[in-house]
Write a structure and sequence with these properties.
This protein is of the alpha/beta class. Helix content is 43%, strand content 16%. It has helices at 11-26, 39-45, 66-90, 104-112, 128-133, 192-202, 221-231, 244-250, 260-269, 285-295, 309-321, 323-332, 341-359; strands spanning 2-6, 30-35, 52-55, 94-97, 117-121, 139-142, 156-158, 180-185, 210-215, 235-238, 253-256, 273-275, 299-301. The longest helix is centred in the N-terminal third of the chain and has 25 residues, at 66-90. It starts with a strand and ends with a helix.
Length: 360
């Protein structure tokens, strides 16, 4: 079976797409990842073994202003032409869209060609693109049950959000008995506000021996490193990390945005978290994601506009010094973990090919 997975543009689309792609490769299927031309996609897919990789022009809706709408339409036409070429050479048996308007050309052409199609929605509030694309899909796989009501019920199945093999929890945590480790992750869409907030809070944390692992993104790396140095904070600052499993293994607490892929990994590793949603996320979907974790008792959630360095320092200090609270939060992540989401989504894709593909 030839499976085309459209998963470019953000880490929240790309990494779950790669995760289910890994499982399909294990099952001896051919997998083509269709990504965007963004740097994150080039870096993440470089050296990815077994995958075929093609790129499409990035397509994003930025408003109805005439010049923006014209640019959107032009990029969409470019995407459709490029997709036709990819279809001719790869001849997909199933097309899978992981979200975003870049999924439109492959899903639209799959519908015209009667090729089985599936979309995956990771977030609690479905993106505009996936709500539109649902009409072209045979099945809608979702990461949170909360998204079920936003799609035709007959098409929907909850699989969870797939996690790449390297990031699945294995072995025992590597905790430092002398120090607690805080992992700070901004996500691919926007870390600047979070970076500044955490750096300002770090020097105010007392009552616990703390080590910080802070992933800032390239733009803020040097500035945040300097803040920690000036405040005498024990911190390792990196733009990115390609071995996140090592950081998850030793983290006692995570401060993060609340993209669905990040939350899936937090639940996978059972780590308490303080979630500060990206304030400009479409339809406030990160806030909806974070609320699910907060309501379960697995996380503390607050909107960025309501956060202060003093509040954050107090919450971090309380979680790290209160063993009962920290363990209760960790335990509360368990019901949020979707075990084998990559296998469940791969089963959906194979089933779709067997039912619709064989019928056609």
């Amino acid at each position: 079976m030839n499976v085309l997975i459209v998963c470019g543009g953000t880490g929240g689309h790309l990494f779950p797409g790669m995760a289910v792609g890994e499982e399909l490769l294990e099952r001896r299927h051919q997998v083509l990842l269709v990504v965007s031309e963004k740097e994150i996609d080039r870096v993440a897919t470089r050296g990815a073994k077994g995958f075929l990789v093609e790129s499409l022009p990035a397509v994003g809706w930025t408003g109805a202003r005439p010049d923006r709408a014209l640019r959107f339409g032009w990029r969409m036409l470019q995407g459709i032409r490029r997709t036709r070429s990819i279809f001719r050479s790869f001849q997909p048996d199933v097309v899978v869209g992981m979200g975003g308007f870049s999924s439109f050309p492959p899903l639209f052409l799959a519908s015209l060609s009667e090729i089985p199609a599936c979309i995956h929605e990771s977030n609690a509030i479905a993106g505009k693109a996936n709500r539109l694309l649902a009409r072209y899909a045979d099945i809608v796989a979702i990461g949170f049950d909360a998204a079920k009501s936003q799609f035709p019920r007959s098409k929907t199945v909850c699989t969870g959000t797939p996690i790449r093999a390297a990031l699945r929890a294995t072995g025992n945590p590597e905790k430092d008995g002398a120090k607690k480790t805080i992992l700070v992750v901004g996500g691919s869409q926007g870390a600047r506000g979070l970076n500044k907030l955490v750096a300002d809070a770090a020097g105010k944390v007392s009552g616990a021996s703390v080590h910080w692992e802070h992933l800032t993104g390239a733009a803020d790396e040097q500035a945040i490193r300097e803040v920690y140095r000036e405040d005498g904070v024990d911190a390792n600052v990196m733009a990115f990390c390609h071995e996140m499993q090592k950081l998850y293994r030793k983290a006692d607490l995570i401060v993060a945005r609340s993209g669905a892929a990040s939350l899936a990994e937090i639940a996978e590793w059972g780590i308490p978290s303080i979630l500060i949603p990206f304030p400009f996320a479409a339809d406030q979907h990160q806030s909806a994601n974070a609320k699910i974790f907060a309501d379960a008792g697995a996380a503390i959630m607050r909107e960025e506009s309501e956060c202060t360095a003093e509040w954050l320092a107090h919450e971090i200090q309380d979680v790290l010094t209160n063993d009962v609270r920290r363990k209760k939060m960790a335990e509360s992540t368990k019901p949020l973990r979707h075990v084998d989401a990559h296998k469940k989504l791969a089963d959906v894709i194979e089933g779709l090919h067997k039912t619709k593909g064989s019928a056609s």
